[in-house]
Each structure stands twice: as structure tokens, then as C-alpha cells.
Amino acid sequence: MVIAAVNDEEVVRNVLTAVKPFIGQGKVADYIPDLARVDPRQFGLALATADGEVHTAGDVTTRFSLQSIIKVFGLALVLSRDSDAVWKRVHREPAGTPFNSLVQLEMERGIPRNPFMNAGALVITDQLLTDRGDAFDAVRTFLRAESSNPEVQADTVTATSEATNGFRNAAMANLIADFGNLTNPVDRVLDHYFRQCALMLNCHELARAALFLARDGIRQDGSRILSARDAKRINAIMLTCGTYDAAGDFAYRIGLPCKSGVGGGIVAIVPGRYALAAWGPGLDQKGSSVAAAAALEAFVSLTGCSIF
Ligand code: GLN
């Protein structure tokens, strides 16, 4: 259904209308017990424009844990320092496997398929620890600045809940270390990874925080975190790998660089124009929010904004 929309404010209102039937659909992530307690009947949407306006609809003040969305920020910080060295430690190919798969790791000798799978994010976390001495704090500092919320924090209950049940991520980190692709102790890398995943933002803050990817690497204060080339490259990896074994379907339905997280958030970038953050805790079988994906699909049909 195409509804004519004349301005950004009207677009977000119309997206909310279109998404109502999907709110509450899907299943909250329960392999992290703390996430299983979240009410699935929530939904928020924020559209940040390249010149810094933010338009919102639904519940945009409730914070949720970013989970895998944080991987975009970690990668940006690593690339901002040494843009090419990291590609010796992690590939940038779609995997076609779930986000927490170990299969390719063994066959490819501890070099993860891409930085957005858990295995790749563990390597990026290790690189951040080496480059900056602290991966969690580096990412939190960046989020605080870009979201204009100096109080941004990780939910320690969520981080502990994941750490206590994180056997698969621990297996992955140990396998990567066995192949010699971690330089910091396994437990330290895991601790920083779990705490990064538990960082909390609301949709309004998240859309603002991701805006540098729509602005060729330019931050809120006008300084540059990335070259335009590296910003474009992150968007390319989001498109091809940001939603794991659903990346093809996301390209087909939405056609924008997207990054999902099992907290129910999805960030999408319209290069040069917008950063969007949509959130609904109910997930599909591949770990992406049903309502947030429906919102992005509605946004693209309303505006025609797709990179294709
Ligand atoms: N913290 C989660 C995990 O490692 C992130 C996964 C996700 O959001 N897809 O399993």
C-alpha cells in the first residue's frame, strides 16, 4: 500500500499507522534471559535527517539494549584509526549463516566471515582493546557524544545475564584465540563484548548516533570520524552482512544498509539523507525485529528512498 506523504513528520506518522498490525508479532529473544522479560507490545521509530532534525513516532523514550547494533560503532572506531589493518583479521563477506554460527570459523582458520557476526565482533572488540586500551568505554564515549546523552550506560543485569549464559560466544572466542587471532585474554574480550551489547539507547538517541553514516563520516560536532570512503564501506557491509542470513531478504524488501540486534532495534541508513532507528522487541527466526523491519519496508514504499 502506498500512502502519499509530503514531509518527514508525516512520513513517520504514516509508517506508524502501517506498522500497527505488526506490533507485538514475533518472539522476544530468550537465550539471554533478561531480554525474555521485555514486553513485546512496544514500538518506536525515529528518523534523523542529515541536517540534524529528528522526527519520531511511537515509544521513543524507552531505552533498549543495542545488542548487535553496537557492532557498527565498534567497527567505525576501529576503521577510524587504521582503516585497512583490521581486514587481515576479519573478512567482509556475507556468511549466509546465523549471527552466532561457528561453522566457518573452523574452516577459515579463526578469521571470521565479517565484522557483524558475533565472531567478527569479538575480533573487532579485541582490536579496540589493543588500540584504545578499553573497548567498552571507547564505544560508550562515542555513543554519549553522538546521542547527546552523557548518561548512556550499559544495563548490567542484561550484560551479566548474557555473560552467565554466553557459552556459544565463549566457544567462539576460544576458537579464535586458538587460531591466534585474539591478542587479549579471552575473558576480557568477552566481558567488553557483552557490556557493549548491553548499552542502552532509545530510538531518538540511536538515530542521532548513527547519523555519521548518512553524513559521509561527519559527527554531530562537525568533526570527522571516518573518511567518506570508510563510511560508504561500512554502509556496504551493513547491506551485505548487517542482518546475517536475512541480508538478501532485507535488500529485497528494504534496499538500505541495515543493522539489527536481538534487543529488537534496527538501524537503517539512507546515505546523504537519513538515519533511521526502529524498535520492536518481537523477533523473527533470524533474530531481526518483525515490527522494525515492517516499519523500514513501509518507509521505503512511502518515500521511494532505497539505494536501488
Ligand atoms: N549479544 C548478542 C549475542 O552475542 C548479540 C546478538 C544479536 O543481536 N544478533 O548473542
From TrEMBL:
Record field: catalytic activity: L-glutamine + H2O = L-glutamate + NH4(+)
One matching Pfam family: Glutaminase
Superkingdom per UniProt: Bacteria
Residues the entry annotates as binding substrate: 68, 118, 162, 169, 193, 244, 262
Keyword annotations: Acetylation, Hydrolase
HAMAP family: Glutaminase
Descriptive protein name: Glutaminase
Organism: Nonomuraea longispora
Protein encoded by which gene: glsA
